Amino acid sequence: MNPESIIEEMGGGLPAVVIVGMGFVAIALWREIRRLNGVRMEDMKDANRAHSDLTKEVARTLDDLAENIRQARRE
Fold this sequence. Notes:
The chain is mainly alpha-helical and about 80 residues long. It is about 90% helix and about 0% strand.
């Protein structure tokens, strides 16, 4: 349906125009929210991946340090 026919179905006048306009704004905002939510989810995935990589690197570094300490104690 086009906006004019929707306004006619509602009886016309300023209130109908405002309601139809608000409906279009609500739809546009809903689409933008969905788009931004998708972008946010991708950012979260990237951040989680980076955090996981950093955690693995810290664990490897701690293992290396522990091995160095064990070697130093043996000497």
